Amino acid sequence: MHGSLLLVEFGAVLLGLGLLGALAIRFQISPIPLYLLAGLAFGQGGLLPLGATEEFIATGAEIGVILLLFTLGLEYTAPELVGTLRTSAFGGLVDLVLNAAPGVLVALLLGWGPVAALVLGGVTYVTSSGIAAKVLSDLDWIGNRETPVVLSLLVMEDLAMALYLPILTAVLAGTGLIGGSVALAVAAGTVAVVLFVALRFGRAVEAFVDSPSQEVLLLKVLGLTVLVAGIAQSLQVSAAVGAFLVGIALSGPLAHNARELLSPCATCSPRSSSSSSACRPTRPTCHP
């Protein structure tokens, strides 16, 4: 009974998202807001809970976001990424100040203290890489001249979060300076290692992944991307950053073949991600 219910709920979710996507195309808007509203309407606490498929959809959607960022990484090479990050350093600093400052100021003005200010500043600063990348794709802005700058800011935000989250965890857990420093060093080292491999050993990664069989190529690319993303996330680094850097490591005909194989999955799954993220609102458990 549970298996049939899962299929019914999952099929209804996919069909509903397809209808919402068609409606968005009709009015020439991004479907992301409609997906979020659908998640609020039919998720936990909504009109109709989806208990049988919630965990399944959430896992599939997370993999979809990873694949979406991987396919975006295929659009650029490692030297292009490094050059863009260098030229966008000032923009990243401005992005940090303008987006984190409102959260910090609100927390301080409400008298919640510095810890709450640190938390709320991170909330207002970070941007969902998956949603932003999906909007760029939906509006056909991937080829625009400003898109590399936007993507570099997203990557810089994710890299900043890789440093921010260990600090926040240490502060909230009260582990002290040593514990926070160790977590921060692990996160920074993970990012450095993945970026170094993408820059220096991209050819070796391509030789390992490449295969004349599309089936084998799909399994290798999918496995490597999800594996690196999972390792990155387990080490307090954004899974999106790990997947993006794997895409950066691939180039040429291999990148084209990988893009052709994974684009349908990367396009479909973030639709479930948007609705799934709204399906599971979390009530605040910490108080000032």
From TrEMBL:
Residues 20-260 form the Cation/H+ exchanger transmembrane domain. It is found in: Membrane. Coiled coil: none annotated. One of its GO terms (cellular component) is membrane. GO terms for molecular function: antiporter activity. Gene3D superfamilies: 1.20.1530.20. It is a multi-pass membrane protein. Its main location: membrane. GO terms for biological process: proton transmembrane transport. It comes from the Bacteria. Belongs to the monovalent cation:proton antiporter 2 (CPA2) transporter (TC 2.A.37) family. This is Cation/H+ exchanger transmembrane domain-containing protein.
